[in-house]
What does this fold into?
Amino acid sequence: MTDADEMALENRLEHDAWWQTYLDQWTALPFHDLIAAVAILSTALLLGIVAARLACRYLLPALAPRHADVIAPRLMAITRAGVTALVLTAFLGVRGLNPGADLLLAAGLGIAVAALAYQFGRALGLRSRPASLIAATLFLIVLASRLGA
It folds into this structure.
């Protein structure tokens, strides 16, 4: 074996070792926790959307048929945010997730609660700014309480 062949083999071994170290670092990351958190968020939002559509299709015409056109957008938003928040609340007991996944779930729950508060505030006649202030405050409270601050 010549010096050039030995040098090429040594470079190849160093290159392979570098790639193996790189791959080991990536496979050690807990992506399964992040995927689980995204799946939980997606399921909660999907259930909220389905519940909102069902409420506007079946519940609203039965309760207020003459005012359905006026009430439907607000009812859809309240139902979507409320069901999403309820489903995410059901997952509050999930422990052992990495901090990134826990932060993702906390942010999702905070956004759902803030959206629900905003829609309720607007339905009760609050202007957009006070309703937004209440929603932002609730978002921070939910986020802090979920993360244990």
